[in-house]
Amino acid sequence: MKKTIVLSVLLSVGLMNAQQKQRYGLFAGVNISSLSGSDADGFSSRTGFHAGGFIWNYLSDKISIDVELAYSQMGSDFNANIPYKINDMNPSSFSLSGKLKADYLRLPVLFSYHPINDLSVSLGPEIGILINKELEYNQSINGTTKQKPDNMQQFDAGIKVKAQYIFAKHYLASVGYYFGMTKIYKSTAVYASNSLNFQDAPKIYNSNLGISVGYVF
Where would I find the Outer membrane protein beta-barrel domain in this sequence (predicted)? Predict the structure, then answer.
């Protein structure tokens, strides 16, 4: 799946060379991101920021290939109660809460349909490169800890859908949603019974709702 998404991005960017009409601009906005998947219990949304630029490459009056490049703050908050038992003591638990901060450089390539001049709906692949990461968590026993997790994937890929509207000729408002399709964590090596085994990476994926405003030149 990762290779398919990357190939789609490269082929789409290649088509830009044949286009005549282009528009470009800048945008910034708010992210509401979280983690999804069957192993993502206990995660909740985190608010972040994004900013970048875009080029719209028109194939016709109704169809364009839109390329964006943006800095994007993603990640998630989390909260859980961890059960434990020491020897013959009664079972108990401790609370664990915190946030995962994951900053990406993101490149979506979107195929857009323009039913009217100022409105478009878009769908396409998106890839991301992790440029900063921090895990901050608070335990009811040991207090707050910060660390840089070393088991996160450097590369992320998925699908983005988006709708945007131009008003007053040059101003842009848009909303988009990103569905991550690659696991954000790596598989882990575990040494047991004199052998090295690999545990599958947890099924945890990025997801993000982005709301933006921008300017079209």
Answer: 18-185
Strand partners, 111: 65, 123
Element (H, E) at 135: strand 119-139
pLDDT score at 191: 47
| Calpha distance 175→7 (Å, rounded) | 25
The pLDDT of 108-134, averaged and rounded, is: 97
List the CATH code of the domain at 2-81+92-216: 2.40.160.20
pLDDT in tens, 69-98: 999 999 999 886 555 445 555 555 556 788
Q: Which tokens hold the place of 97?
A: 């809460």
Q: Which residues, at least 6 apart from 53, have a Cβ–Cβ distance to it below 8 Å?
A: 24, 25, 26, 27, 68, 69, 70
CA 169, 19, 216 angle in degrees (round to 5)? 20
Three-state secondary-structure class, residue 217: coil
Q: Residue 17 — φ and ψ, nearest 5°?
A: -65, -20
Locate the domains of the chain by residue range: 2-81+92-216
